[in-house]
Amino acid sequence: MRRWFAVALAVLVGATALTACASDPMPTDVTVAWAPKGRAAVLVTWKDSNAPNRITIEGVLSESPSYVKYLPAGEPNSWEIPTSVFPPDGNYKVAVAAGTSQGGVTSKLARSVVFDTDGPVRPSAAAASPLGRRGVLIKWAVPAAPQDFTPNDPLDVKGPRTQRYVPMIGRTGQQLRVIGPATTSTRQVIKSIKPPYVFQLRTQNEWSTRMGGEVFGVTSSINSAVPALAQFSVPIVVRGRVVLQQVTCEVETPCVQHRATPAGVPVVVLTQITPGARWTPAARGTTTAGGHYNIAVPTGASRPYMLSVPAYSKDGVITGPSTDKPAYTKTVVRVAAAGFIGGETSKKRGSSVTVFATVQPAMNTTAMLQAWNRHTRKWVNQKATPMRKGQTSLAFIAGPAGDFVYRFVIPNAMMLGRPMAGTTTPPLALHVR
């Protein structure tokens, strides 16, 4: 009986103690606002009866951070929580109760309204435009902010521009460094900068910081293979490769340089139409995968060609120009047609035969008709024939029966101040019966 009474008494005393711990007055009017100095902290205030307090942060559909602060009795009913304590992109409340680190919570929790800690919106679609000697103009776009699930909470910053952009530059072997003050503008002019480099924006608002808006300033190099000979008006194919050098950076580590061989890099074929003339575009193309290019170039007179990567910007990349050494292509006169008028290659002895040739360009010169000597195994000159506007012909009487082979020799020529190689027609076989 005594043992039962003792147990009952202990239970009663414990229940009384628990009731006493939970019966302290609950704080009231918990509010949150920005601390006075630059939104570096959240100012929490409340009302109570001069009790010690315990301050925590509760997640609303978000994980609660492990933050606890105890204030002794007699301290002001306010406390500044650094913004770095709050996880980004979440919804939270600040809870205040009476309590100490030794005795625990001794009242019900009083909570603030829900507020969000949404970080800045990362910039996108950054692009650069060269300004000549003035530098480079970089522009960036910012997507629309995601839906605010706690509209008009006490910590919302009013106004259309609630985030700032800090421009940063990274170079090989160096860490990203700030090159200008934070701005609300969505454009930045960078003066006196040469690639390779990487431009990034450190976007910040009152809650957190994000990196974005990258623009790579890259250097280019180009090599080429230009044919030494070309037939007049027959395109040549110029081949080669473009290699880019770009810089990438990781947070708090030196930036590194590496090469890239992307597709889509523009390539321009330049030429001098006449000696000493300015270099002008003859053809254009772009690289394929691996940085390779194959460009068909229309030909005319003999001339040099030079391959170039122009300065251009696209999709967050601004590329510096480069050129390869000029290569000379000598043009060869092209035989457009040659044979016997009427198309007959078999004639009766004593009949009239006319042999002809047409070449490009439509030049005026003197061609030579040759015949093949089977005994000496050499070509023998027969008759010089005038060529006008690229056409020449010779009529003669078919001699004794037999098989004969002819050809025209077209001499070298000059065109637009440069030499052009002559040529010969294919062998023209004639059977006399």
Can you describe what's shown?
The protein has 433 residues and is mainly beta. Helices cover 5% and strands 52% of the residues. It contains one helix and 38 strands. It has one helix at 2-21; strands spanning 28-34, 41-47, 53-59, 68-71, 78-82, 91-100, 104-105, 110-111, 115-116, 124-130, 136-141, 164-170, 177-178, 187-190, 197-204, 209-225, 229-231, 236-248, 256-260, 266-271, 280-286, 292-297, 303-309, 312-314, 317-319, 322-323, 327-332, 334-340, 346-347, 352-360, 365-373, 378-387, 391-397, 402-410, 413-415, 418-420, 423-424, 428-432. Strands 12, 13, 15, 16, 18, 19, 22, 24 and 25 form a nine-stranded mixed sheet that branches. Strand 24 (312-314) and strand 25 form a beta hairpin. The longest helix is centred in the N-terminal third of the chain and has 20 residues, at 2-21. It is rod-shaped, with a radius of gyration of 44 Å. The model is unreliable at 1-20 (pLDDT under 50).
Q: Which structural traits does this protein have?
A:
single chain, 433 residues, six-stranded antiparallel β-sheet, 1 helix, 52% strand, nine-stranded mixed β-sheet, mainly beta
Question: What is this structure, in a nutshell?
Answer:
This protein has one helix and 38 strands. With 433 residues, it is mainly beta. The strands form eight sheets. Strands 12, 13, 15, 16, 18, 19, 22, 24 and 25 form a nine-stranded mixed sheet that branches. Strands 3, 4, 6, 7, 8 and 9 form a six-stranded antiparallel sheet that branches. Strands 17, 20, 21, 23, 26 and 27 form a six-stranded mixed sheet that branches.
